[in-house]
Amino acid sequence: MNEDVVRLLSPEGERIEHEDYPLEADHDQLRAMYRDIVLARRTDVESTALQRTGELGLWCPVLGQEGVQVGAAHAMRSHDYGFTTYREVGMFQVRGVDPVELLHLYRGISHASWDPREVGLGIFTIVIGSHALHSVGYAMGIQRDGADDAVLSCFGDGATSTGDVHEAMVFASVFSAPVVFLVQNNQWAISVPVTRQARAPLSVRAAGYGMPSVRIDGNDVLAGLAVTRAALDRAREGGGPTFIEAVTYRRGPHTTSDDPTRYRDDGEVEHWASLDPLDRLRRYLEAEGAIDEEFTARVAAEAEGLGERLRAAIRGMEDPEPLGMFDHVYVEPHRQVQADRAAMQDYLASLELR
Amino acid sequence: MTQMTMVQALNAGLRRAMENDPKVLLMGEDIGPLGGVFRVTDGLHKDFGDLRVIDSPLAESGIVGTAVGLAMRGYRPVLEIQFDGFVYPAFDQIVTMVAKHHYRSGGITRMPMVIRIPYGGGIGAVEHHSESPEAYFAHTPGLRVLTPADAAEAYVTIQQAIASDDPVIYLEPKRRYWDRAEVDEVSAISGSPWTSRVLRRGSDVTLVGYGPMVRTCLEAADAAAEDGVSCSVIDLRSLSPLDVEPVADDVRRTGRCVVVHEAPVVLGVAAEVSAQVTEQCFFHLEAPVQRVGGAFLPYPPNRYEKHYLPDVDRVLDGIDRSLAT
User: Fold this and answer.
1) Structure ipTM over 0.90, yes or no
2) Domains of chain B, with CATH numbers?
C-alpha cells in the first residue's frame, strides 16, 4: 500500500497520532466497532455458505473491507443518511439492518426489505454509480430543510469511471451539498484493476471539482472513523462536500459467481491478509486492555448465534405468493397493472379447476 | 376564464402548485432567470427564489438523479428536460431508478416527480429537437405518462401530475405551445387525468390522437364532415395508463378506427391501441384499425417535416383507407 495515506492504527496495532485527525475514541466505542466487524464478517461467511448450498442465488463477499465501512458508519449520527453499494455489509451491521432482511434480495423474494427511514440507509442500487446522484439530491434536500444532517455516499473504484459519479461531483460541488463521498478503492472492479479506471490516485480527481480530498488506509477502522467524522462535520457546518479515498482490498471474489484466480495472484491476496482490519484492531485493543478473552469469547458466541439464526431463517423462507409481484408498482391504482393482475388471478384459478 | 397560450397555462399551473405545496420545487437547465428556453418557468425564479427554482448544471442524468434523492427527502421535484432528444442521457435514471424505486422499496419510498419534456416536431428545428419518445416511457412499468392537447388541459393536468405520488413523464407538445384557449383558473381542480377524453361524437369513424395530434384530428374531422363523413374524436391524454375503454365503446358504434401520432407507427402507442380495440371490438369492426404516423426513420431534417408529420390530409387518407374496406 502507498504510504501517502492517513493511518491512525498500524497493521501491528500501534496507535499513530495524526495532527489533522485527533481521535478520542472511548473503549465502549472501540469494543462496539470490534463487535461490528466480527458480526459483519460472520454474516459474510454465512451468506457465502448459504449460496454454496443453493439457499441463495448470489452473494457479494466483503472480506477485507470491513475496517473503513465500520469506522465510517460509526462516524455517522443517527439522523445522517447513507447511500451504499451491495458490499457495505459493515455499514448494514452498524446501522442496524437485520442480515436476514438483507438476504431477502439474494434469496429472490424481494428487491429490498428494510425501511430506509428507520436505519438512515437507502436501499442499495446495483447499477454502478447511480446512487451517487441520489445522495447529492438527498443532501440538497437537507439544505432546503435547513437541517444539520449530512450524507455519506459510498461507491467503489469502478464507479468513479461512470458519468453519474462525475455529475454527482459537479452537483455536490456547485451547490455545496452536505455530502461526503467515500470511495472504497478495493483495487478490482470484478476482473479489471484500478489502473484501468485511473492513471492517477482517485483522490486527485476531487481537486478538479474544487473539493478537498483525503486518502486513507481503508483497513484502519480508526482512520475511517476520524476522517469520515471530520468530513461529515464539515459538510453539516456548510463547508460542502469532501472526497475520501479509502485504499483497501477485496480479498474474496466479486460475487460468488466470480473466479478471481483467473485474474490475480495469490501473493497479492496474502499480502492484504497481513493488513487485516480486524487483526490490527484486536491487537490494539488487547494492548490497551480494552478487551479480554471473556469479551472476545462473548462476541464469538454472538457471531455463532447470528450464523445459526441466518441459516434457520433462510432455509425456512417460503416463496412469496404469485400475486404479490403486482404490489407497489404504483402508489395509486393503475389500470394496466390491475388488468394484468386480474388476468393472472383468473389464470391461476383456472389451473385449480382443472 | 382567461385566454392563454399553453406556455402561459403551464406557467400558471406551476405557480399554483408551488403556492399550494412548499415541497414542490423546479429544476432544469436555464429555467431560472431566463425562464426556460420556451419561457414556461418565466418569473418563477424571481418569485420563489434559488432554493425552489434551481438552474442546474448541464447534465440530464444529474437532474433526474439528484431529483431521486430530493424525492427521498420528501420533496416533489418538477424537472424540465430542455428538448425531447436530450432526455436520453437521463434514460437510465428514469427507467432504472425513478420508475422502479417504489416497487424495489416494497412500497416504502415514493417518487413523486414530474419530468416535463417538450416533444414532437413541426417547428422547423434542428435535429434532436423534434422527437416523440413516448412509447419508451409508456412501455416502462412504474411511470405514468401524460400529454396535454391544449392550454386548458395543460393548466389542469400539470397540477394533477405534480399532485400524483407516482412519477409522471409529462410530454408537452411544443408545436401547440403558442395555441390559445380559455383557461379556468378559478374552479377547483377535479376529475382524473388518467382517462381518455371524448371531444366529439360521430357515427362513421373513431379518430384517436393525443398531444399535438388532437388539433390535427379535430381539423381532419371538420374536413371529413364536409365530405359527409362523421367522425368521433378522442384524446387519449394519458399514455400510461392507457384508457382504451372509451375508444372501444365508440368503435362498437362506428365500426371503424384511425389512430394518429407523430412517432413511428411500428411498435408505437397506436399499435397497442389497435391491438386492444381489435381484442375488444373484433365483431363490431367493419375494417382493420388504421394507424397514421411517422415512418421508421430518425426524425428527418426539417425541410422534410411536411412530408414526415401527419397532417389533415394524412389523417383523411387514413379515414379513406378505413372506409374503403
Assistant:
1) yes
2) 2-183 (3.40.50.970), 197-324 (3.40.50.920)
